[in-house]
């Protein structure tokens, strides 16, 4: 059974390391797992006045989430929490009340950082929101990538074997979980 995963997050900057981790996940995914990477840069700031008739980019994004079997998020940590643009898309997708496109969606998380903590605090904050939004989260493996800039080559490709193994394990856990839920 083919599993379709929608991946997003990264940071908005061109050479983003967390975006590179999403690209690595796409390359490492087994043949029967399709990972589509969605760029969230065009999603505007959340405005509750618009939640029942959201902008086209938001409507399309929610549709993509609904159509996907599972979600994979890769995030950096900003000031010990989630980057604002990522929280912004979570808020859009969760609204209006009763129309939460994340409801019962399997989700896996990766965080990365140029520091030593691997974005663990951002990941914890994401887990808090996703529990509230009733997502089915992968708990293990935890993919926390410290000193991420040392794990890529000059072209931004992942060259660290241990990180590649963890990402592979995570994508496998997410696709197996999604298959079980689809049965
Ligand atoms: C606004 C801002 C806040 C940051 N805060 C943290 C932080 O709390 N913890 C951390 O480990 N790194 C922090 N960093 C450093 C990031 O780990 C580093 O810039 C990383 O490369 C960002 O991810 P990206 O490569 O995907 O853009 C921060 C960076 C920025 C720009």
Radius of gyration, in Å, reads 16 Å
What is the count of β-strands? 6
In the CATH hierarchy, the third-tier topology is known as Rossmann fold
- The CATH superfamily name is Flavodoxin domain
What's the CATH architecture name? 3-Layer(aba) Sandwich
What overall form do the CA principal axes indicate? globular
Which bin fits the share of residues in helices? 25-40%
User: Regarding CATH, which class?
Assistant: Alpha Beta
Mean pLDDT: 97
The rounded distance between the terminal residues' Cα atoms is 10 Å
Could you give a short description of this structure?
This protein has a single domain, classed as Flavodoxin domain (Rossmann fold, 3-Layer(aba) Sandwich), CATH 3.40.50.360. Helix content is 38%, strand content 17%.
Structure commentary:
The chain has 183 residues and is an alpha/beta fold. The chain is 38% helix and 17% strand. The protein has five helices and six strands; from the N terminus they run βαβαβαβαββα. Strands 1, 2, 3, 4, 5 and 6 form a six-stranded parallel β-sheet that branches. Strand 1 (3-9), helix 1 and strand 2 (33-37) form a beta-alpha-beta unit. Helix 1 packs across helix 5 (161-182). Flavin mononucleotide binds at residues 10-11, 13, 16-19, 76-80, 113-115, 117, 119.
Chart the SSEs and their pairings:
Blueprint: E1 3-9, H1 17-28, E2 33-37, H2 56-67, E3 70-76, H3 84-93, E4 106-112, H4 120-132, E5 136-137, E6 143-145, H5 161-182
Parallel strand pairs: 1-2, 1-3, 3-4, 4-5, 4-6
This protein binds flavin mononucleotide (FMN).
